[in-house]
Input
Amino acid sequence: HIPDSRRTAITDAVARVAPSVVTVQTEVVQRVAADPLDAFFGGRSGTQTSAGLGTGFIIRADGVIVTNAHVVAGATNISVMLRDGTTYPARTIGTDETNDLAVLKVDAKALPVAPLGDSDNLLVGEWAIAIGNPYGFMLGNSEPSVTAGVISGVGRNLVARGEGPSAYFDMIQTDASINPGNSGGPLVNADGEVI
Output
């Protein structure tokens, strides 16, 4: 038995949202040019398959899942693993590159759903809990990882130079640690709502 003194707003929020957090595994098949020496001896260009990992969360009990667009970008194959280890093939039903969002669908029923909150009324300094599944498929254990911090700022705009999207607008800044593979996971308030 766990004493009530160890239960906090954070543990309650995690208990509310964690069942809806999923691991997203992708497969990207890329064309690769043949080595010039191989080409000289009649070799042809081939394909190379690489795997990617990210996180998502279920927003509708019939299998609608939200993740980051960059998690599924270019994927030829997408699988989603639930907390209990059940794995489903998933398809992308929409992406919004500007806001780095993607919506996936799996054929399932009665799945646990993450409650959605309101990011417009966030308070700087309130708890922020990041839930992710960075290594779900590799660990054979789909218990999500949890990091906690506060809302450090709201309405942040970032204009980046170099590769990838060049600007992000109206972002929430948090000091909760974000680990590789956390991409697409929910940021949650102390009431257990995705913000």
Notes: The chain has four helices and ten strands.
